[in-house]
Amino acid sequence: MRSSYRCSPGQQRARRASFAGIALALLIVGGALGAGPAGAAGEKDVLAPSGHLRVGVYPGSPTSQVTDPNTQQIHGVTYDLGREFAARLNVPVEYVPFQRIADVVVAIKDGKVDFTVTNATAARANDVSFSQNLLSVELGYLVPANSAIVRAEQIDGPGIRIGVTKGGTSERVLSERFKNAKITSAESVAGAINALRNGELDVYATNKAILFQMSQSLPDARVLDDNWGQEHMAIAVPKGREAARELLDGFVRDVQSSGLLEQIEANAGLKGAVKAARD
What we know:
This protein is of the alpha/beta class. The protein has two domains: 9-137 and 231-273, Periplasmic binding protein-like II (D-Maltodextrin-Binding Protein, domain 2, 3-Layer(aba) Sandwich), CATH 3.40.190; 138-223, 3-Layer(aba) Sandwich (D-Maltodextrin-Binding Protein, domain 2). It has eleven helices and twelve strands. The chain has helices at residues 9-33, 37-41, 43-47, 77-89, 101-109, 122-125, 169-177, 189-197, 208-215, 245-258, 260-268; strands at 53-57, 66-67, 74-75, 93-97, 116-119, 128-143, 161-165, 182-186, 203-207, 222-223, 230-238, 273-274. The strands form three sheets. Strands 5, 6, 7, 8, 9, 10, 11 and 12 form an eight-stranded mixed beta sheet that branches. The chain has a two-stranded parallel ribbon with strand order 1-4. A two-stranded antiparallel ribbon has the order 2-3. It starts with 8 loop residues before the first helix and ends in a 5-residue tail after the last strand.
């Protein structure tokens, strides 16, 4: 489905011309150095070797993929940026769905997916290559209706059950931070919503973009004002494609400066985003 944002024909031509200029410069430099797959095979072969740009997405997160309940349109930072990046490469986009971001990262590592947006942690950088920072999102806590928890200081107590995303940043970080509460891993966002609804969890912790999205399915649930840090998100691609780093970074700079990223965030209903930290 097409997203609701629109650019004028002039803006579209300008963006593609800018992207083409970066790609041409990459090819010239690669050829002059006599090294690097981008110079030899072209940016399409480096970034979309199958002939399609395979975009890894998972449901329930505005930073990845969400469905508007009223229009049934699909949006998301990864979803919409993947389509835009494929268009600039002049290749078809192919969406590859997963249950959670950890599965997407494994697929990127194994070369089964070409493109996603995720938290650019040092641990993940061992497995995939990242662009420069795209956007940052606060990390926080969601509590169900009628919860007595109103501040983060109340969370680390005996008997408190904190849900986290299996394989995600919150699972590792909060397992180390909280000594008294019980950390429980959820297989998916949908599973976490059901666990909160059924009273199986007292708190859910992840980035606030996901938490605000989850709260729409949980009447009177609250995202606490506190935060426990930020996720610094970037485009992830498989290792071995570093020759195209400048192309990715140029794309990031363009969508940030042109306002396209802001439009995509609005279409996805993304909340909790802050200005991206610069490399």
